[in-house]
Specification:
Blueprint lengths: L2 H12 L8 H12 L2 E7 L1 H7 L5 E6 L2 E7 L4 H16 L15 H6 L8 E5 L1 H4 L1 H19 L16
Parallel strand pairs: 1-3
Antiparallel strand pairs: 2-3, 2-4
Helix pairs in contact: 4-7
Length: 166
């Protein structure tokens, strides 16, 4: 079993995928597990690019809650994938202490979410802050979650990487 496979398995045991699949239900379970609410906001792709988020999504961790901002033009499965990518960062432990905010907030973020208090934000994590390995993990997490969400219903649903034996 690979390290990535073990971490995905831990994530799905910790916060099981709902059966039948429902993104809202899953986000509520993730929020309950983390002890922090999760809110979703959309933004124009151009504003996300200004913040340094070319991938279409951004995770803002505040002191007591999390905000996922995603491309306003993304719909359906594309929007779900972006959201699940950010959830992957959360559940895979990518928002650790080394990501604590030491720089001022990007001006585009303060325009996008003017009600945010800069003091309440622990970190703002877009594609450039995570590094290639963590981005790949979050991308695979989102891909796998979406695949498993479409599989026939079973009692137990946890990740098993493709190509692995039973």
């Amino acid at each position: 079993m690979t390290s990535m496979e073990a971490r995905f398995g831990d994530a799905t045991r910790t916060v099981p995928l709902p059966n039948p699949w429902n993104l809202t239900t899953y986000l509520a379970a993730v929020a309950a597990h983390r002890g922090r609410s999760i809110s979703l906001h959309t933004a124009p792709k151009a504003q996300l690019n200004e913040i340094g988020c070319g991938g279409g999504g951004l995770w803002v961790a505040r002191n007591h809650d999390d905000i996922i901002i995603y491309d306003a033009d993304a719909t359906g499965r594309n929007a779900d994938h972006i959201i699940l990518h950010e959830v992957g960062h959360m559940l895979l432990g990518h928002g650790t202490a080394e990501a604590e905010r030491t720089e001022p907030l990007p001006p585009a973020l303060t325009v996008l979410l003017p009600s945010l208090s800069p003091q309440s934000i622990r970190h703002v994590l877009g594609r450039s802050e995570f590094g290639v390995d963590r981005e790949r993990e979050a991308e695979v997490f989102a891909d796998m979650t979406m695949v498993y969400a479409t599989l026939p219903q079973r009692k137990s649903r946890s990740f098993r990487l493709f190509g692995r034996g039973k």
